[in-house]
């Protein structure tokens, strides 16, 4: 391997350190109108009256969108009015949209719109939503248009239910000698991408709808706007430049719809909507919350024989992507353990909370907290070392998943190897607790995870390669550069395959749905796998064309030709050959005659053999492979006031193949950082009216410089045979085990079982007090 | 609101711009001068993505009115040319999405100038005013220390 595995500098590096890198809001033009939302101050209320008369008096106001029923939106169920009509269902929901010449005018006018509300009873948790007599968030749930595999239950708050029924529960319980059961709960939180969401839209006189958006899913924007509003799909052109962090939060389609509606209202003029931080936290979709109950049974030697699991996901006011998150949570409901008998009900519940987007890990960091805490409770009860318990139950080739996929050497990584490696990294054998003095102790906690990516069974990825006259190559892929460096990895894959200098490959960073081949969505750690396969196919296409032309010019059979260092040459006599610059645009004979033309390579990939889940049993193949990982966290705990310091966090992930070492380590460390922040401090605090009390970065406070622990990263490389050079996804996995490992360390340290997030000293104090 | 014409010294160039009294420096450099390296992240001084350098010190440009910059020397990320800290960010993979990067680099650059021998505590005091959501901060620590140690 010449290029694969090397820490190749990211293709957009210089732009990003010089301020030249452009994000959606950095594109300015004149005129560009400004859209400003009026948002609901309550969680659940009837809209009695909206008075826009004062707002209209503000100079520069061109349109006010409100009080009208616009087409319903939503990916799995069409349950969401883009602008609230009749009632509001969450704090932050758009109630009106003002379009004005400048941001200041739009804001002034928005502040003058008077909305009269009548408060309705609030559904403030998924458990409350699940109660028989809970207030209804959607009274007309049965009337909504929906996807075939969404299963809403009318006259309840159930947006969908995914069932897993595997094995024989009675047999499982009979074989078990030790049983533990525990419940866990945490509220929604936020992604906090540093770039707040932004979208602009304009409609040209010929009907072209041009949208620019900070999105992980520009191709989905195109599909959904066509679908929602009956527009011609070919006339919708979506552009996505660099994206300033996403983590799943920019996979849903929201501001794009509003910008489109606003532009339509002002005769197609360009309109920009930029979220303030507060709107980004409240109005745009958040990180899902969960109430979970896990019951595990094991025999005396620690082998888990049965699992019964209830997940109540806090989908919030609208189902959108939460339906898929709920399904994903059911798919991998047990965590990475081989359990023959499994019963799981995974419900997506409507509440009066901000609605949920995917969050890095797509249900797995959340469910892992519940599973991994229960694993530690089981280890405690069995009096088995917690890491050992995980080792003996680790999922392996030959086992089946909860949805009954038979695993093999390729589609699952080696968890036992990950566990052994993490054992060494965190010096587990020195013991989980080290007493420093009367007050301080150092404590370790461990966890494991697995994840498949439950994406659409027909999700595509495409790549186009074009030659420049100097023999260099342009690479166009629909993968969005959201920070993961995937487009640089794609260039490395191409360089490796063509045995050429990666610096001679130019990557187009922006996506334009009219000219870039589609990559379904840049989500689910699937960019390298799917985009990489498409690159390899495009490379084959290029190789074929280069050899075809060279065979003619060199008067040699194609089979005798080899490609390396930007040349096509005779295998047995490399001196005889042609440089790419001599044939990339066709070959020109000395007399001027030319044969061939610009070489354009194309490649596309679509995942194979995926199926939806059976509605009664959950059986099905929802994703291509399972990446596994093991984790450890070490803290220093102050027994006096229950504060703690993060000392070390470790992840060992079976990555298949390391494609770019520094980039891979960076992905894993960054994910751990986000996971510890989620686990240790991030949450929405709701009041009884369903209002989020902390929608600002000084009250919602992610980890900052110096609060981080030391990070340890290890890799295991069990190739995924159908992945490019054996690579598995790695963007999410460092995060998944952090809540579980931190929760386990703190539970040991405090001597009390912790069941909630975030793990703040006050929570520990409350648990201690409750235990007294 | 009435506009006033003022003179600003930005990146060692004199700019004459019409501003309103309430315009923040961030709004002016982005909207009037096209210097979009400084990013809005919270408009509340919480995240540091809009950090620029004013008379040698880091300043969150969302917290400063444009008119306050009159008579001062403002440097934005666009005013840095091949500085060691920019190179160190590249080599250490100290960014991913890149959105917080200009603010972090301006803060680091000011730190290196003001405290070429900064210890861990000083570095923390300076850099904890910026949020990076992609990296683990270790990469940024390595980048800034690689430059400080060279000095």
UniProtKB/TrEMBL annotation, chain A:
Keyword Oxidoreductase: yes
Keywords: Molybdenum, Oxidoreductase
GO MF term set: iron ion binding; oxidoreductase activity
UniProt entry tagged with the keyword Oxidoreductase: yes
The Aldehyde oxidase/xanthine dehydrogenase a/b hammerhead domain, residue ranges: 18-121
InterPro entries: Ald_Oxase/Xan_DH_a/b, Ald_Oxase/Xan_DH_a/b_sf, Ald_Oxase/xanthine_DH-like, AldOxase/xan_DH_MoCoBD1, AldOxase/xan_DH_MoCoBD2, AldOxase/xan_DH_Mopterin-bd_sf
Pfam families tied to this protein: Ald_Xan_dh_C (PF01315), MoCoBD_1 (PF02738), MoCoBD_2 (PF20256)
SMART domains, alphabetized: Ald_Xan_dh_C
Name of the protein described by the UniProt record: Xanthine dehydrogenase family protein molybdopterin-binding subunit
Species classification: Bacteria, Bacillati, Bacillota, Bacilli, Bacillales
TrEMBL record, chain B:
GO molecular function, one term: metal ion binding
Domain 2Fe-2S ferredoxin-type: residue ranges: 4-80
Keywords recorded for this protein, A-Z: 2Fe-2S, Iron, Iron-sulfur, Metal-binding, Oxidoreductase
Top-rank taxon, per record: Bacteria
Pfam families for this protein: Fer2, Fer2_2
UniProt key word Iron: yes
SUPFAM superfamilies linked: 2Fe-2S ferredoxin-like, CO dehydrogenase ISP C-domain like
Signal sequence region: none
Cross-referenced InterPro entries: 2Fe-2S-bd (IPR002888), 2Fe-2S-bd_dom_sf (IPR036884), 2Fe-2S_ferredoxin-like_sf (IPR036010), 2Fe-2S_ferredoxin-type (IPR001041), 2Fe2S_fd_BS (IPR006058), Beta-grasp_dom_sf (IPR012675), Diverse_Oxidoreductases (IPR051452)
Protein name in the entry: (2Fe-2S)-binding protein
């Amino acid at each position: 391997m010449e290029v694969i595995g090397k820490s190749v500098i990211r293709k957009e590096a210089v732009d990003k350190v010089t301020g030249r890198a452009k994000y959606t809001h950095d594109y300015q033009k004149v005129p560009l109108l400004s859209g400003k939302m009026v948002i609901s101050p309550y969680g659940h209320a009837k809209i009695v009256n909206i008075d826009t008369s004062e707002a209209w008096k503000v100079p520069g106001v061109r349109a006010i969108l409100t009080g009208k029923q616009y087409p319903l939106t939503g990916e799995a169920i069409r349950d969401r009015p883009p602008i609230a009509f009749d009632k509001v269902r969450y704090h932050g929901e758009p109630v009106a949209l003002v379009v004005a010449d400048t941001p200041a005018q739009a804001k002034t006018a928005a502040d003058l719109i008077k909305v009269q509300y009548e408060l309705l009873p609030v559904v403030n948790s998924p458990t409350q939503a699940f109660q028989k007599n809970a207030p209804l968030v959607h009274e007309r749930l049965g009337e909504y248009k929906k996807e075939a595999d969404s299963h809403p239950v009318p006259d309840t708050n159930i947006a969908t239910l995914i069932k897993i029924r595997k094995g024989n529960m009675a047999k499982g319980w009979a074989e078990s000698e030790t049983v533990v059961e525990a419940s866990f709960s945490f509220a929604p939180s936020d992604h906090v991408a540093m770039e707040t969401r932004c979208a602009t839209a304009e409609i040209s006189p010929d009907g072209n709808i041009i949208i620019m958006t900070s999105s992980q899913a520009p191709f989905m924007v195109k599909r959904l706007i066509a679908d929602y509003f009956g527009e011609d799909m070919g006339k919708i052109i979506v552009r996505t430049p660099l994206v300033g962090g996403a983590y799943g939060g920019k996979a849903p389609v929201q501001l794009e719809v509003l910008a489109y509606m606003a532009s339509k209202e002002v005769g197609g003029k360009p309109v920009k909507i930029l979220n303030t931080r507060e709107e980004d936290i409240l109005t745009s979709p958040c990180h899902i919350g969960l109430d979970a109950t896990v019951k595990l049974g094991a025999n005396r030697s620690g082998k888990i024989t049965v699992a019964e699991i209830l997940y109540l996901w806090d989908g919030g006011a609208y189902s959108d992507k939460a339906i898929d998150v709920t399904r994903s949570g059911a798919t991998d409901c047990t965590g990475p353990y081989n359990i023959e008998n499994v019963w799981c009900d995974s419900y997506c519940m409507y509440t009066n909370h901000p609605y949920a987007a995917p969050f890095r890990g797509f249900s797995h960091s959340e469910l892992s907290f519940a599973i991994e805490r229960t694993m530690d409770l089981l280890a405690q009860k069995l009096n088995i070392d917690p890491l050992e318990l995980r080792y003996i139950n680790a999922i392996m080739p030959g086992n089946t998943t909860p949805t009954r996929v038979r695993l093999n050497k390729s589609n699952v990584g080696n968890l036992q190897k990950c566990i052994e490696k993490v054992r060494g990294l965190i010096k587990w054998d020195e013991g989980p607790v080290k007493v420093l003095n009367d007050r301080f102790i150092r404590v370790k906690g461990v966890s494991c995870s697995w994840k498949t990516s439950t994406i659409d069974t027909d999700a595509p990825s495409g790549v186009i390669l074009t030659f420049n006259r100097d023999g260099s190559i342009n690479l166009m892929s629909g993968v969005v550069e959201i920070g993961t460096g995937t487009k640089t990895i794609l260039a490395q894959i191409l360089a490796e395959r063509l045995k050429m200098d990666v610096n001679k490959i130019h990557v187009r960073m922006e996506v334009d749905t009219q000219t870039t081949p589609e990559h379904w969505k840049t989500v689910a750690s699937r960019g390298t796998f799917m985009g990489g396969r498409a690159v390899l196919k495009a490379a084959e296409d290029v190789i074929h064309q280069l050899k075809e032309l060279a065979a003619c010019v060199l008067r040699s059979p194609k089979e005798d030709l080899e490609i390396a260092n930007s040349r096509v040459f005779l295998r047995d006599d490399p001196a005889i050959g042609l440089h790419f610059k001599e044939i990339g645009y066709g070959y020109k004979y000395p007399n001027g005659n030319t044969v061939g033309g610009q070489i354009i390579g194309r490649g596309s990939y679509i995942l194979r053999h995926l199926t939806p889940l059976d509605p009664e049993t959950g059986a099905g193949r929802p994703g291509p492979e399972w990446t596994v990982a093991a984790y450890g966290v070490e803290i220093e705990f102050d027994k006096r006031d229950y504060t703690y310091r993060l000392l070390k966090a470790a992840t060992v992930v079976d990555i298949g193949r390391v494609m770019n070492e520094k980039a891979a380590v960076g992905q894993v460390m960054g994910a751990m950082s986000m996971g510890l922040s989620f686990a240790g401090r991030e949450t929405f605090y709701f009041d009884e009216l369903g209002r989020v009390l902390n929608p600002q970065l000084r009250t919602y406070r992610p980890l900052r410089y110096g609060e981080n622990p030391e990070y340890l990263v290890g890799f295991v490389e069990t190739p995924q045979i159908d992945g490019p050079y054996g690579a598995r996804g790695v963007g999410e996995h460092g995060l998944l085990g952090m809540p579980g490992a931190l929760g386990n360390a703190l539970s040991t340290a405090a001597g009390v079982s912790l069941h909630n997030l975030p793990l703040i000293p006050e929570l520990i104090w409350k648990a201690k007090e409750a235990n007294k | 609101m009435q506009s006033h014409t003022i003179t600003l010294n930005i990146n060692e160039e004199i700019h004459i711009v019409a501003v309103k009294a309430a315009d923040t420096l961030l709004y002016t450099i982005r909207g009037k001068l096209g210097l979009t390296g400084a990013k809005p992240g919270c408009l509340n001084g919480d995240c540091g993505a809009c950090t620029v350098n004013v008379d040698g010190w880091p300043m969150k440009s969302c917290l400063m009115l444009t008119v306050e910059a009159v008579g001062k020397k403002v440097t934005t990320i666009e005013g840095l040319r091949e500085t060691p800290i920019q190179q160190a960010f590249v080599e250490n993979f100290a960014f991913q999405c890149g959105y917080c990067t200009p603010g972090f680099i301006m803060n680091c650059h000011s730190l290196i100038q003001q405290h070429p021998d900064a210890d861990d505590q000083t570095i923390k005091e300076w850099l904890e005013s910026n949020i990076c959501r992609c990296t683990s901060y270790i990469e940024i620590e390595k980048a800034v220390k690689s430059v400080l140690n060279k000095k």
